[in-house]
Structure formats: structure tokens, C-alpha cells
């Protein structure tokens, strides 16, 4: 990923490459707390042991127009490199790694993951 922006005078240069791995799922709003509990109990502790893992964030937005209250959650994990992501996800880093306990909470989820380089 090539960043050709010009830095302004006095603007610090990025210290290191950071990659954001972003993935989303749709579920009943009432199930969001159970998913967050699953993340805190199972996923985040496992990720914290991996070299190159930086942190994780979960975003939620309520979806309108559904028969029942629905939400979309987006999980964003930050990594030091694509190599660190590959050690976690395997050769196909765009494949979503979804544990069965989490999948059971979702109405549907993305099978693919997007990766972004942090540039600012």
C-alpha cells in the first residue's frame, strides 16, 4: 500500500505500519451483549497472545426497517503487519475466522475480511 500524501511542516511521520482488519455481522440487537461477552471471554484473550496483534474495537449500528430490532457489528483489529495477520488467519488472510459460538449468535456475517493500512 503506497501512501503518497505530503506531510505538512511539523507533522510527525508514522512510526510504524499498522494494518486494520475489518469484518462485520448482522444480529438481533438483543444478542449484541452476548457477542461482546464472547469476545471478551474468548477472542480477545487469545488474540492478545499473538505476536503482532495490537488491539481490537467493536462498532455497532442499529438497522432500521427490520421486523425485529437488528444491529450490525463491525470488528476492527489492528496488527503490526500483514505477516502477523497471516500467522493468525493462514494463507488466505481475507477469509473470516468466525468461531462457532459467535456464528450461532449471528443472522448472517461476512465471509471475507477487508484490510486497510492506517495512514493518518
Please explain how this structure is put together.
The protein is 24% helix and 31% strand. The chain is globular, with a radius of gyration of 16 Å. The chain has one domain (19-117): Alpha-Beta Plaits. By secondary structure, the protein is of the alpha+beta class. A hairpin with a 6-residue loop joins strand 2 (53-63) and strand 3 (70-79). Strands 1, 2, 3, 4 and 5 form a 5-stranded antiparallel beta sheet that branches.
Oligomer class: single chain
Helix content: 10-25%
What is the CATH class name? Alpha Beta
Total number of distinct structural domains? 1
Strand and helix order: EHEEHHEE
Q: What's the overall geometry?
A: globular
Report Rg: 16 Å
- What summary fits the major beta sheet? 5 strands, antiparallel
CATH topology: Alpha-Beta Plaits
Give a topology summary.
Layout: E1 19-28, H1 32-48, E2 53-63, E3 70-79, H2 82-89, H3 100-103, E4 108-109, E5 114-117
Antiparallel strand pairs: 1-3, 1-4, 1-5, 2-3
Key features?
single chain, 120 residues, alpha+beta, Alpha-Beta Plaits, five-stranded antiparallel sheet, 3 helices, 5 strands, 31% strand
Short note summarizing the structure:
The chain is of the alpha+beta class and 120 residues long. Helices cover 24% and strands 31% of the residues. The chain has helices at 32-48, 82-89, 100-103, and strands at residues 19-28, 53-63, 70-79, 108-109, 114-117.
Amino acid at each position: 500500500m503506497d501512501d503518497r500524501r505530503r506531510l505538512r511542516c511539523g507533522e510527525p511521520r508514522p512510526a510504524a505500519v499498522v494494518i486494520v482488519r475489518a469484518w462485520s455481522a448482522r444480529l438481533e440487537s438483543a444478542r449484541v451483549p452476548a457477542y461482546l461477552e464472547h469476545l471478551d471471554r474468548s477472542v480477545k484473550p487469545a488474540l492478545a497472545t499473538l505476536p503482532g496483534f495490537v488491539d481490537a474495537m467493536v462498532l455497532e449500528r442499529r438497522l432500521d426497517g427490520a421486523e425485529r430490532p437488528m444491529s450490525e457489528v463491525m470488528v476492527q483489529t489492528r496488527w503490526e503487519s500483514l505477516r502477523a495477520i497471516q500467522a493468525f488467519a493462514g494463507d488466505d488472510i481475507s477469509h473470516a475466522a468466525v468461531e462457532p459460538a459467535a456464528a450461532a449468535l449471528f443472522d448472517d456475517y461476512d465471509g471475507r475480511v477487508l484490510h486497510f493500512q492506517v495512514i493518518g
